[in-house]
């Protein structure tokens, strides 16, 4: 019974993070690369996959870091005398260090194991270290006090949501080449408006409860 | 914050010569980090529903950009280029931790309202963008000014967005009611669109539209 409950909880976190708390449409995270790399669908898809990849690794890793090292009382597993230490002010620097080193590691691993995938993702992987949605994922995980399993699923869902957003906008921008946009609005301006409209569309998921 | 710490350069140049002034004013319009360079949109739009947190955000970002530009520029000849991103991220995150702790100590409610977005200054593309594009190749003093200028450029855009969002979204400016009750009684309703995330995007799009209509050379040729 309780596993059923847990599964339902995880599905709810997953769906929420994709559709309702979408990184792009609800929090504008990762907008820089979203705007810069959304000119064609193929590269957008590559970046999206890379983001999911790194997100699924870093969010649980940062969860472990936060709950086993940084939080007040979390060092008690080493020795009870350390139980009073609160290092949570170091969270930012530890999170970003994890993310930067993980992207580096992932980049090297992918290069070694699958040169084809590296060819497709290669240029995007270093960019990901400074993608706001990755750090945002870890910070939301901290703010919302997820459990370990929830944190992992949240990482996956946020990454998938981000990928859906960037692939969709890339597809729209490719069609947009043939339309007559007012000159001052071309490029950046119209992309903002489109993102806004897509955000409104995504708001229709708000009513769904699981 | 602690920009006052910086001493003017030793040579007998004016503190703000023509070149220096250009560094400060260019990012306000022609080379604006948000609307022209397309940087730093990530963490900025979500905080712009009200003026007060936006103001705090603008000041924090300006402080972080200016100081990190200055620090990295001081260290620029000692940083091996292979690991420069990690060095930059470390410097930036230390500064952001300082800002975050200060906000938590002195402005707790605003810090709660900004939630994760203070931490996200670390990955704000303006910071990294300026470090890469300017601080790594220029002297400390101009880098500091460049950081300040870009911080102000960012501040101008997000404050403008916040002004319209707060005015039309809740009839207030800086938390003070500016739209009189009489108008509400006459049937005026606050615009709910301004309060949702999408509203911010429309306001920025209009800002870009207006800016580019006046400055034709900024239009994109796609």
What would you note in describing this structure?
The complex is a heterodimer of chains A (210) and B (222). Chain A has 210 residues and is an all-alpha fold. Chain A has 9 helices and no strands. The longest helix of chain A is centred in the N-terminal third of the chain and has 30 residues, at 41-70. The relative contact order of chain A is 0.20. Chain B has 222 residues and is mainly alpha-helical. Chain B has one domain (33-215). In chain B, α1 runs parallel beside α7 (140-170), α3 (84-106) packs across α4 (108-114) and α7 (140-170) crosses α9. The radius of gyration of chain B is 19 Å and the shape is globular. Classes of the chains: A mainly alpha (210), B mainly alpha (222). Chains A and B meet through α2, α4, α7 and α9 of A and α3 and α9 of B.
What is this structure's SSE topology?
The complex is a heterodimer of chains A (210) and B (222).
Chain A lengths: L1 H19 L10 H6 L4 H30 L20 H23 L1 H7 L2 H5 L3 H13 L3 H29 L11 H16 L7
Helix pairs in contact in A: 1-8, 3-4, 3-7, 3-8, 4-5, 4-7, 7-8
Chain B lengths: L17 H8 L25 H25 L8 H23 L1 H7 L1 H4 L5 H9 L6 H31 L1 E2 L2 E2 L3 H5 L11 H18 L8
Antiparallel strand pairs in B: 1-2
Helix pairs in contact in B: 1-7, 2-3, 2-4, 2-6, 2-7, 3-4, 7-9
């Amino acid at each position: 019974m309780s596993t059923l409950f847990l599964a339902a909880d995880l599905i709810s976190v997953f769906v929420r993070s994709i559709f309702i708390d979408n990184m792009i449409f609800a929090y504008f995270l990762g907008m820089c690369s979203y705007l810069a790399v959304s000119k064609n669908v193929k590269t957008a898809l590559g970046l999206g996959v890379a983001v999911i990849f790194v997100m699924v690794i870093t969010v649980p890793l940062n969860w472990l870091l936060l709950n086993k090292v940084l939080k007040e009382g979390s060092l008690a597993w080493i020795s009870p005398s350390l139980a009073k230490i609160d290092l949570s002010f170091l969270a930012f620097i530890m999170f970003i260090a994890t993310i930067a080193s993980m992207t580096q590691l992932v980049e090297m691993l992918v290069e070694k194991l699958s040169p084809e995938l590296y060819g497709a993702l290669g240029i995007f992987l270093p960019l990901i270290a400074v993608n706001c949605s990755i750090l945002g994922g870890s910070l939301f995980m901290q703010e919302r006090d997820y459990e370990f399993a929830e944190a992992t699923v949240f990482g996956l869902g946020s990454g998938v949501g981000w990928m859906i957003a960037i692939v969709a906008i890339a597809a729209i921008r490719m069609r947009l080449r043939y339309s007559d946009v007012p000159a001052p609005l071309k490029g950046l301006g119209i992309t903002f408006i489109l993102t806004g409209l897509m955000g409104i569309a995504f708001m229709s998921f708000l009513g769904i409860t699981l | 914050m602690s920009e006052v710490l910086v001493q003017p350069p030793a040579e007998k140049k004016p503190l703000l010569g023509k070149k220096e002034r250009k560094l400060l004013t260019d990012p306000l319009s022609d080379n604006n980090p948000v609307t022209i360079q397309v940087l730093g949109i990530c963490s900025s739009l979500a905080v712009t529903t009200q003026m007060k947190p936006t103001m705090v955000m603008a000041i924090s970002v300006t402080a972080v950009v200016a100081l990190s530009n200055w620090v990295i520029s001081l260290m620029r000849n000692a940083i091996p280029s292979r690991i420069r991103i990690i060095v930059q991220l470390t410097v930036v995150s230390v500064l952001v931790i300082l800002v975050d702790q200060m906000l938590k100590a002195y402005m707790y409610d605003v810090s709660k309202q900004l939630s994760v977005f203070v931490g996200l200054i670390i990955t704000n593309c303006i910071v990294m963008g300026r470090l890469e594009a300017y601080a790594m190749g220029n002297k400390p003093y101009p880098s500091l000014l460049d950081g300040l200028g870009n911080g102000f450029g960012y501040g101008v855009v997000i404050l403008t967005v916040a002004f319209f969002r707060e005015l039309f979204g809740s009839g207030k400016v800086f938390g003070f009611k500016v739209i009189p009750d009489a108008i509400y009684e006459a049937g005026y309703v606050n615009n709910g669109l301004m309060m949702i995330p999408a509203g911010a995007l429309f306001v920025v799009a209009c800002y870009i539209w207006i800016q580019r209509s006046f400055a034709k050379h900024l239009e994109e040729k796609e």
